[in-house]
Amino acid sequence: MDFTDPTAIRQAIRRGEWTRTTAGLAAGYTQANLVIVPRDLAYDFLLFCQRNPKPCPVLEVTDAGRYEPILTAPGADLRHDLPAYRVFRNGEMIEECQDIAHLWRDDRVAFLLGCSFTFEAALLAAGLPLRHLDRGCNVSMYRTNRDCVGAGDFQGPLVVSMRPLPGDMVARAVQVTARYPAVHGAPVHIGDPDALGIDDLSRPDYGDFLPLEDGEVPVFWACGVTPQAVALAARIPFMITHAPGHMFITDIPDKTLAI
Amino acid sequence: MDFTDPTAIRQAIRRGEWTRTTAGLAAGYTQANLVIVPRDLAYDFLLFCQRNPKPCPVLEVTDAGRYEPILTAPGADLRHDLPAYRVFRNGEMIEECQDIAHLWRDDRVAFLLGCSFTFEAALLAAGLPLRHLDRGCNVSMYRTNRDCVGAGDFQGPLVVSMRPLPGDMVARAVQVTARYPAVHGAPVHIGDPDALGIDDLSRPDYGDFLPLEDGEVPVFWACGVTPQAVALAARIPFMITHAPGHMFITDIPDKTLAI
Q1: What does the pLDDT look like over A39-64, one tens digit per residue?
Q2: Of A39, A40, B15, B69, which has the fewest Cβ atoms less than 10 A away?
Q3: Is the CA virtual torsion B180, B181, B184, B189 positive or negative?
Q4: Chain A partners of B185 at a C-beta cutoff of 8 Å?
Q5: B181 — contact with chain A (CB < 8 Å)?
Q6: Is residue A132 within 8 Å of residue A55, measured between CB atoms?
Q7: Residue A9 in contact with residue A114, Cβ under 8 Å?
Q8: Is the ipTM of this complex over 0.95?
Q9: Among A72, A65, A78, which residue's Cα sits nearest to residue A109?
Q10: Best interface-test mutation with B: which of A46, A49, A70, A257 has the largest number of B CBs within 10 A?
Q11: How many other CB atoms are found less than 10 A from the CB of residue A2?
Q12: Does the beta-carbon distance from A71 to B61 stay under 8 Å?
């Protein structure tokens, strides 16, 4: 497998040859969160994304029934080309699977949302340390006490990812990620976790705990897991997502997303 | 009338005391393009905006039937608070009016889209000359040969606005407007009008002609008139818009839109 070519990696995933996280694959190409809903929920979800652009920056929305994202990865097939999917029904996660062909219908609309892997590459390039990568684990993610702006039935809490950074590097991290609004952009909060309703940093709701070292500040970015928290909180009738960390790899070079 | 307060101006407009362009009113507050469509067209139009963020940067979408934009101007009434509206039916502009209460229905969805008045204020603040303001006229606007990315029935040409700038100021204009993606952002094209299918700069499709002086370059930005061109080109069954230059004034300070 060629670990640098988006098409080759998607095809390997489609053949079932890669079932792990996509972190580190196709360096330099944008990875995406996936949300699939039936057409009768698509307007409200698109509106939800418009009203909450930091957790839900939309890269592409497919026409109903089309599983090929013609704008961001022509030739790809969203039914097969992610290593792992999650299926939500009526507010419960009912299945985790490596293929969703059995769930595809003519009314399915797929949303690709920007992913922090893109801005992490930019942070690394700017010389900022990312502990979860050093440790080979996932970032810490937390449900906050901040409600997203609702749209129709889509209502629920903002989920954030947290990366600890030395105090003298926080401003640089803001500058670097602000250039990437299509992949969550600048942090939503810096410092005091209490202000987000996070009682205990050592117990993340998703991902792994990253302890703070002396002089470090927790920096919180809006997170693409938010729609999954909304599916649960709002008991959305039907939604398919990627499994955390198991993203869709597009053909978009990261650099083209910088403003 | 207090020309600096968004609420006071909207109320004066509502009472019919101001029917002219909103250019220069409420300096420092964001003005918006308006597009109203029935709910059954709203998804495709929202998708059209998502696929064409430069001409159609969405500031707010109201819930169906709600004429109050609760996020950007609480208390306002989109049926009355613009000085002039245009009504399109089946691809024709059938009416220009100062009030749309007679056309409001429970299925109406209003879109507020960013307007170049915001970035013009930023350009002026950066010391860049804007000839149409010096002359007290409108910018030049042109239908181009570039198709927007279609969504459902919404298909049509990109409309651009043109401002002539001295060659040594073009880069600065790019830098300044790039900070405002919510109001069309950086230019879509600089120089040669032929490349956009514009045969004759002296005959704009909308607005007024601005002759180029020696050493000046035409700089083209995506324009919020694009949905009106799409309503005509795609024969959209029903759409209400603002009349060009007669915008909706929000409570959002321009500066909060800068990234």
Answers
A1: 999 999 999 999 999 999 999 999 99
A2: B15
A3: positive
A4: 259
A5: yes
A6: no
A7: no
A8: no
A9: A65
A10: A46
A11: 11
A12: no
